[in-house]
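Holo model, magnesium ion. Inputs:
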Amino acid sequence: MTQALNQTLLARATAKLGPKASLAVLGLVLIALLAMPLLHLLPADNALHVSAYGLTLVGKILCYAIVALALDLVWGYAGMLSLGHGLFFALGGYAMGMYLMRQSAGDGLPAFMSFLAWSELPWYWYGTSNFLWAMCLVVLAPGLLALVFGFFAFRSRIKGVYFSIMTQALTFAGMLLFFRNETGFGGNNGFTNFRTILGFDITAPGTRAFLFFCTVLLLVGSLALGFALARSKFGRVLTALRDAENRLMFCGYDPRGYKLFIWVLSAVLCGLAGALYVPQVGIINPSEMSPTNSIEAAIWVALGGRGTLIGPLLGAGLVNGMKSWFTVAFPEYWLFALGALFIVITLFLPKGVIGLLRKEKDQ
Amino acid sequence: MRATPVPEFMLEPAFDPAGSGRDALGLGSAAAKGLDVRHGTILTLEGINVSFDGFRAITDLNLYIGVGELRCIIGPNGAGKTTMMDVITGKTRPDNGVAYFGDTLDLTQMSEVEIAQAGIGRKFQKPTVFEALSVFENLELALKTDKSVWASLRARLSGAQKDRIEEVLTTIRLESSRHRPAGLLSHGQKQFLEIGMLLVQDPQLLLLDEPVAGMTDAETEFTAELFKSLARKHSLMVVEHDMGFVGSIADHVTVLHQGSVLAEGSLEEVQANERVIEVYLGR
Ligand SMILES: Nc1ncnc2c1ncn2[C@@H]1O[C@H](COP(=O)(O)OP(=O)(O)OP(=O)(O)O)[C@@H](O)[C@H]1O
Ligand SMILES: [Mg+2]
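Output:
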């Protein structure tokens, strides 16, 4: 609790110090992000050309940043540590993947189903060739799952570490389910070999640039939504919930509705991020639901600084930037580095990188 | 009885600048429209039993609080005072017994939130405020208003609501700390903030668990005046160990011992009661 307190104190102190400076930095980053897809459209021999690899890598990290932001809303503000957000991300990804598989299969069945000698689509695949319905699924699949899970968890007042463990178990169960061929989602290979999206070639520079642009838009939108919520009375109720749930109840607030709202919203944001991730990266498989993925997301948030909105974005960028460098330079050491990083944050950076930056500024 | 040396810090003017008496506080009426209090009792507890793993914290407790009454509850540590408040506010369910708010609301069938919304407010024994939020924001959240999710998403303080918060900030003497995070307040200030939160919540029945613990004498004096000004328009149940404080506010005192009522009456009466003396002084 004192930690949260220091955090708000710092936030208040720095709010006066340099809102203009931080806004300027944010603006520059945004301009750079918006310029990237345009630069990708330049001819490959141009010095300013951004390669498909570079664009995809940054696009992927931006999707992760949205997950970090969504996790920060439930963890940093409402105090519920979810270790299962990877599941919502993957569900959004799979919903988009279903559409992409139907696109590449044309009138036939998706390739993996033919392999299994299935003669017709399972019922839940109906309508997935329609882009709009697929987009509804992107929202509905994670949203409904979060709604049902949250409804029972919050009704039974499951909190703290029990809540974290249950979310972790949920994503693990999801992974096991999707690994099975009979589930109808391509088993451990998942979906890949996408060709077109809305009739456009999925690897064409224009398509890549557009998907990247959508990702930036979603990130900015989520950030704006996050700020609006944090500044609203709703956001203050969440903070109150995190620090003294009992007191809040005796003030006449029903915590269940508040938790459910932010929980479902967070899951839907993850689903949308997953839906943008899949066409850019070109593959989705059950490993996205592995418990370590969700734990990594928590590390992004902790590293960046929870309860700050901007911090988690930084955290996701830093960790994934490091990861892509490490996995090329010394692939076998990445997990050790991640573990060490986590220990360093917990010991020395309780307020994350944002906290550190603010402290520097204060001095 | 305690000495009363600090007239400058106490009494009406602090929270009644208009000088127009209690009504100027704008605290509403003792019984809201919805609440049926034809029999004159706002709270009825009959035959309440609570046990924790076989340990009986409350045994066959009977207690009635009249509308507009200011009742003090005293009793040694572990007498079950806090547990009784837990039962009234729905935090603990009694094993059996009846608990009614007004004539019709069965507290044993209501959730904590429903009970709070029906008009029972509570101050915890350990002062509990929202530490990361500012003093002003704490009051804003407690303010009597629609507390649903949708309302909170769109909530804007009206002029009247802001005035009400300012008024209470003055009453609890925290005007100058309005933007401080509540976690930085002193123990006594937190007590006042929590009392202030009750004031803006405007419940009909206020349960106050050791409200003056950690307050200076002057602050205690001031709180006594505040509570007296709240009575009649509200009903209050105050648990306190500070006998000076109890003597200065209560006309009616209930002594709790081992989970049931040992004696009831004016403070002088119960202090003269043989059994009470036995319990307090030991044999
Ligand atoms: N949740 C619980 N589980 C087990 N025992 C409890 C629980 N809550 C209270 N008790 C026991 O019930 C008895 C009454 O406790 P309670 O807190 O109501 O006393 P109190 O009158 O408020 O005392 P104090 O003056 O110290 O605040 C105590 O013996 C306490 O240990
Ligand atoms: Mg107690």
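Residues B 81-82, 125, 209 surround magnesium ion (ligand 2) (CB under 6 Å). Residues 190 and 271 of chain B are 31 Å apart (CA to CA).
Archived with the compound record.
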